[in-house]
Design goal:
Layout: H1 3-24, H2 26-33, E1 48-52, E2 66-70, E3 83-85, H3 107-130, E4 147-150, E5 159-162, E6 167-170, E7 172-173, E8 185-186, H4 191-206, H5 217-236, H6 239-249, E9 261-262, H7 264-269, E10 277-278, H8 292-314, H9 322-343, H10 351-364, H11 368-380, H12 409-412
Parallel strand pairs: 3-4, 4-6
Antiparallel strand pairs: 1-2, 5-6, 7-8, 9-10
Length: 454
Amino acid sequence: MTTESAAKPITHKFDKFQTLATEKGAVRAVAEKMLDLPAQINPPILGSRTRIWKQDPSVTELKLPRTVYVHTEVNDGPSDSQIRIKGVVPVPADVNRDFLPDPAANVEAFDAVHTYTVVRQVLTFYQRVLKKKLNWQWSQDNGEQAINVYPHAGETANAFYSREEKALKFFYFTPFKDSNLTSKVFTCRSLDIVAHETGHAILDSLKPEWILWDAPAQTGALHESFGDLTSIFLILSQLDLVEYIVAETKADLHQKNILAELAEEFGLAFNLRNGLRNADNNLKLSKVTPEVHDLSQVFTGGVFDTLADLFTSRRDPYVQDSAEVLYQTGKYLGEVVLRAIIESPNTNASFADVANAMIRIAQTDGNHDCAKFVQNNFEFREVLGPKAFGTHIDLSNFGMYPSRRCACGTMQHPQYRPKAAHLNGTNTDGMNGQDTISVGEQRSTGERRSSTSI
């Protein structure tokens, strides 16, 4: 056999592989064709390595930053078809198509890479649940348009998602003098904050009416809660963080931990010692105000308790590693929450709508323990059951909307106010609609809570 004739079958197989890669994607093509590829052909190296803060830089015990793997194609910027970094000098890939800048030597480049990566991780997590590519809210009928992500959007204590600007914007600010923080706080460096704001953008693509100011208080609170839950589910998708949390808490999620405490560095900037907010709380509907951030903590707490209960009940360290159980539990509960939101009404959705959908989904999946924990925890929160607390009065027809005083910059942004003349944007607490963060005082109620939000 000549060299030329021997090369033909190899070339033919490679052509078939290329066709499969075009049809199904390179990752699936490699998985399906590895045994068929001859030794002379190496499978393609896919994706890129990047470096991120896996928690806020203030969480020093984690020895950050760390290198992670993005399985999809990443272009210079970094950017891809769904995400584009803006407002900073574009970061080029190195010769291996990786993005590994030193955070000390090139702060701006590192912030760009970190922010892009966290947005990509959130998007990938939810797209795996949806089993399809997600279109941003403005891409529904106009073809695919990327979201613009600004790691250094300006100087103020803020971060927000803007539908009109098709953007996520992360700002930086100088902390209080007595906060013990000596340098500026960059919100883009917080995995929690980036995940939270990306959660707003994703939910807006699925339920565009939920973000509007004339939505009922619980609907707005679901938006705020989804941002916090997105951070929790993203952390639980990081295998090294899951292992750390299990060790940190001795497998008791009600112990102090990085999962429940969100945006630690931002909280420290305002002298809050348990993060900007704490998902591990005991709040009930009758104990909170209709302000959407205050209210959101009830729903977040109910989901967090369900996570803790489900993890505890499924643990058997003699059979399976606890970190593996927590990873699987977080993945499943994140899927249930997203599927329940999709099943909930497009307008005027309540906590009970989503909680009941979670119960139905878990039962259909055969996870009756999960359904029972959701029922128990949301009965305790006065969302379901005979002691369910009545919803707050809706005054939107009179131009009075649920307060968003302590909600994040996204929920306070004036672009989501109704444009109708008879709805003049009056807020129940006199908010003027400026897109700034409201920093409230921590309450000494005996509950595990914080009223400060981003």
